[in-house]
Design a protein that fits this description.
CATH architecture: Alpha-Beta Complex
Oligomer: single chain
CATH topology: Spore Coat Polysaccharide Biosynthesis Protein SpsA, Chain A
Number of domains: 1
Distance between the termini: 42 Å
CATH superfamily: Spore Coat Polysaccharide Biosynthesis Protein SpsA, Chain A
Number of strands: 9
C-alpha cells in the first residue's frame, strides 16, 4: 500500500520467462513491494513461486487488450511495465514517492521514447482519454496512439526525477523463430499503416483531432 492505495503492477509477457523471473525477483528485493502482480501470459504456462502473482494463461491477446483489462478491473495505483526491466532496490519507492497522482508518470531514468515500458495510469486520465486502441494487434503503436490522445486532451507524460530502472530491451524477439520474426515485421508494418489511417500521419506527424477523422 502507498498513501492508503494498493500497488498493482501489470506485466504482459510472451515467452520471456527467464527475464520475467529476474524482473519479479528484482522488484521483490526492493524497499517497497507491490500488493499484486497481474501477469498476462500470452499462450504459455508461466509459473512462479513468488507470492501475490496473479497469472492469466490466456489465448494470445493484444498488448492493448491486456492493458485495457487491467485498467478496467484493477484499482489505482496502476503501474504497467514491460517484462524486460530490472528494478534497482529503490526504484519502486522512488517512483511512488515522486508520483503525481493526476498524471501519467514514468521513471525519468528511462528515455522518453520508452516511457510506455513503465508507467502509471490514474483514473482521471482513463476517464478523459479512454482506453487503449486494441485495433493494434498484437503490439506496437497502441502506445503512440494513447500518447497522442492524451496530448489532444492537454495531458503529458511526467518523468519522475531520481527514479531509474534497467531496460534490457525487447527480449520477446530474442526468443522468436525466423518465421515469427517475419510475422512480427509484417504486423509492425500493418499497425504502422493503421496508425496513419487512424490519425492522418505517423507519430509526431498526425493531422486528425479524432480517430479516423470522424
Amino acid at each position: 500500500m502507498h498513501n492508503g492505495k494498493p500497488i498493482n503492477i501489470c506485466i504482459p509477457t510472451v515467452n520471456n520467462y527467464q527475464g520475467l523471473e529476474e524482473e519479479l525477483a528484482s522488484i521483490e528485493a526492493g524497499s517497497i513491494k507491490p500488493d499484486n502482480y497481474f501477469v498476462f501470459n500470452n499462450g504459455g504456462n508461466f509459473r512462479t513461486s513468488i507470492p501475490r502473482v496473479i497469472i492469466y494463461n490466456s489465448h494470445r491477446v493484444s498488448l492493448a487488450t491486456a492493458w485495457n483489462w487491467f485498467i478496467d478491473h484493477v484499482a489505482e495505483y496502476r503501474i504497467i511495465i514491460n517484462d524486460d526491466l530490472i528494478f534497482y532496490p529503490n526504484t519502486l519507492e522512488a517512483f511512488l514517492n515522486g508520483l503525481k497522482e493526476d498524471q501519467m508518470c514514468f521513471p525519468y531514468g528511462l528515455p522518453r521514447l520508452n516511457s510506455f515500458s513503465f508507467f502509471s495510469l490514474p483514473d482521471n486520465i482513463v476517464n478523459e482519454v479512454g482506453r487503449f486502441d486494441d485495433e493494434f494487434y498484437p503490439a506496437y503503436f497502441e502506445d503512440n496512439s494513447y500518447d497522442y490522445k492524451m496530448n489532444l486532451k492537454g495531458y503529458y507524460v511526467y518523468g519522475i526525477p531520481d527514479c531509474s530502472v534497467i531496460h534490457k530491451g525487447s527480449q520477446t524477439l530474442a526468443h522468436y523463430t525466423q518465421a515469427q520474426i517475419k510475422e512480427h515485421h509484417q504486423n509492425f508494418e500493418k499497425n504502422r499503416k493503421l496508425y496513419i489511417q487512424m490519425w492522418g500521419g505517423t507519430p509526431k506527424n498526425e493531422k486528425y483531432a479524432t480517430k479516423y477523422n470522424r
